[in-house]
């Protein structure tokens, strides 16, 4: 027995056994609940899903940029290390190694700060999308509650 899978074409990135928003609207309208604006409810949920998709996209892009920067830092450090090893046989090698070690420690601290800032920005941006949607939901709920009084 074959089962059909429907996916929502209005929300990028979501797959699986999900009915489309139009299907949900038709289903909800069949119940004809008095005082319930079904299309408004469906629109509300669509906006929620879009906000989650956008938050996920921003988190993915941020983590991708973070991983790319980590790879760049690793390549830079390996290159510097190779250069330091090539100069290890010169007469003033000990002084050069000491200076290289100092620069290396400072560079590691700077790199750590940069990566931490990138991660913080990624988390902040993704959370802001969700937070904005939550605030919009609260405003909508307040409007609905005022209408019932």
Describe the structure.
It contains three helices and no strands. It is mainly alpha-helical and 149 residues long. It has one domain. Helix 1 runs antiparallel to helix 2 and helix 2 packs antiparallel against helix 3. The longest helix is centred in the last third of the chain and has 56 residues.
Question: Brief overview, please?
Answer:
It is built from 3 helices and no strands.
Name a few traits of the molecule:
149 residues; disordered N terminus; 0% strand; mainly alpha; rod-shaped
Element-level helix/strand string? HHH
Derived structural class: mainly alpha
Number of domain modules: 1
Based on the structure, what is the oligomeric state of the protein chains? single chain
User: Helix content range of the residues, please?
Assistant: over 70%
Which range does the strand content fall in? under 5%
Which whole number gives the mean pLDDT?
Answer: 79
Terminal Cα span: 51 Å
Number of helices: 3
Rounded to an integer in angstroms, the radius of gyration calculated over CA atoms is: 27 Å
Number of strands: 0
């Amino acid at each position: 027995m074959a089962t059909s899978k429907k996916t929502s074409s209005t929300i990028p990135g979501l797959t699986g056994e999900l009915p489309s928003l139009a299907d949900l609207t038709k289903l909800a309208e069949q119940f004809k609940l008095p005082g319930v604006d079904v299309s408004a409810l469906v629109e509300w949920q669509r906006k929620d899903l879009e906000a989650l998709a956008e938050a996920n996209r921003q988190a993915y892009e941020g983590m991708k940029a973070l991983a790319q920067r980590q790879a760049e830092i690793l390549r830079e450090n390996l290159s510097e290390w190779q250069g330091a090893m090539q100069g290890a046989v010169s007469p003033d090698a000990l002084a050069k190694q000491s200076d290289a070690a100092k620069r290396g420690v400072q560079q590691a601290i700077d790199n750590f700060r940069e990566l931490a800032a990138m991660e913080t920005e990624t988390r902040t941006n993704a959370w802001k999308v969700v937070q904005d949607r939550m605030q919009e939901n609260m405003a909508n709920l307040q409007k609905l509650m005022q209408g019932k009084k």
